[in-house]
Amino acid sequence: MKAKALVAGLAIVAGTIVTAAPAQATWNDPQVNLSGHLDCGGAQEATWVWYEASNGERGWADTSLWTSVNRLVPGALKVIKIKSYRINLTNVSREGTQVTVKVGCKGVLGGQVTEYQTSFGVNRPTFGRSATRHICSDAPLGCIW
Asked: How far from 92 is each of 25, 85, 86, CA to CA, in Å?
C-alpha cells in the first residue's frame, strides 16, 4: 500500500514539474530578442548602439560581445573587432514594430566618432523569441559574415 502511495505521489510531482516547465514562445508572444553583428566598415569599430522602437521602447543595446575579423584596408591587412549587439524588445505588436538603430563608429587609430542609423521592421518569430539582423555601414557588397 505504501508503495502505491509513493508511486502516486511521485507521479503527481513529475506531472507538476512537466506542467510547470515554460512553454516555447510562439508568434503570439510580444517579446523578441533581436541580435546581430555591427560593422562600421573599413578600419572603424562600433563604440555604442542606441535603439528606438515605434512602440516606445528605447535604450542602449548590450554590446559586450566582440568578434575579430581580418580586413584589407588601404595599405595593410588589419584585424578589426566586429561588435555584436542584443536588444530585448518586450512589446512587439502582431503587425510588427519599426526599430531605428543608431551606431557610433570610431577609427581604430582614434579620431572623431561618426554616427549612422538604419531602420527596419521586426516581426514576432513563428517559433521562439529570437530574430537576427546584421547592421553594416559602408558595405556596398553586404556584411562580411
From this structure: 13, 18, 15
